[in-house]
Predict the structure of Orotidine 5'-phosphate decarboxylase.
Amino acid sequence: MDKNLPIVALDIQHQEAVREFLSAFEGEKLNLKVGMELFYSEGAPLIKELKASGHDIFLDLKLHDIPTTVERAMEVLTLLEVDMLTIHASGGVEMMKAAIRGLEAGTKKTGKKPLLVAVTQLTSTTISQLRDEQKIAVTMKESVTHYAELAMQAGIEGVVCSPQEVSTLKESSNNQLITVTPGIRLNKENRHDQKRIATPFEAGEVGSDFIVVGRPITESKTPVAIYNEIRSQWEAGRAAYKERN
Ligand SMILES: O=C(O)c1cc(=O)[nH]c(=O)n1[C@@H]1O[C@H](COP(=O)(O)O)[C@@H](O)[C@H]1O
């Protein structure tokens, strides 16, 4: 995946609408995220089509199940030769190690190893949900750091978190951990269901490795212009981070 480009979340249900959305980008190579709604609807053939058009693919299915099920599922997902895959860190170390075994078994067959990242706390989660619903009596940063440590213990190279936790994770992992950050908004007034948000510039400035953006682009009347605005803010933020580090 090209770190200079935002990852566009194709949270669209049907392939016709995906094709129409992508036609506005006129053959430009994109980082595309296919999540549950699109994959459950269109499956592997669409992944193949998007790859054949030259795009890099983040297949985000956030696996969370017993270790054997995750291992076997991860093996077959790896056969799709995508660039990035997700699991939930809350599934635990044993489950994450099983995911890695599945990924390695798939990689042996394809020769292409996707980056596996573990979701820490979803960007839609607030501190009160953490405390009252999940009954986790620590701060958001502590909970995210804890899940990131479990992921590293299992041998996972990257995590999904909000830009608000990136500095903490970079510090605690001695800059080893790759961070993928959704919850990106150009306009913070329109956050939808996202709670821990940042602008593309802010995400770049704190050292996020990848940003994921969906509705601000896919629901826009001018998706290409919004994508380009996000991309240039992201580049400026990354440049500011590089200058400081
Ligand atoms: O794993 C993800 O990609 C993910 C993790 C997370 O904590 N928060 C989060 O929003 N996402 C995904 O990132 C995308 C964000 O979409 P927008 O809120 O529309 O920009 C969605 O496809 C979510 O599934």
Notes: The two ends are 22 Å apart (CA to CA). The mean pLDDT is 97. The chain has one domain: 7-244. Residues 9, 11, 35, 60, 62, 86, 119, 122-123, 160, 182-183, 192, 194, 212-216 surround orotidine-5'-monophosphate (CB under 6 Å).
